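Table S4 entry, Anti-sigma factor NepR domain-containing protein.
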Amino acid sequence: MTEQGQAGMKPFHPSVADQLRDYYQSVQEEGIPDRFMQLLEKLDAAERGVALAEKDDAR
């Protein structure tokens, strides 16, 4: 890389990376809302049902 960075971009500042890392960490620690988990479970159940139906049709 050049003194100015790639394609004329400003130089990279480690503090930005640290802030992004901290933000990502906080999002990971939040957990998944109950309503979203319920929707994911319904989706999984529906996909299992489709997979079973396709398996039965293949026989």
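The mean pLDDT is 83.
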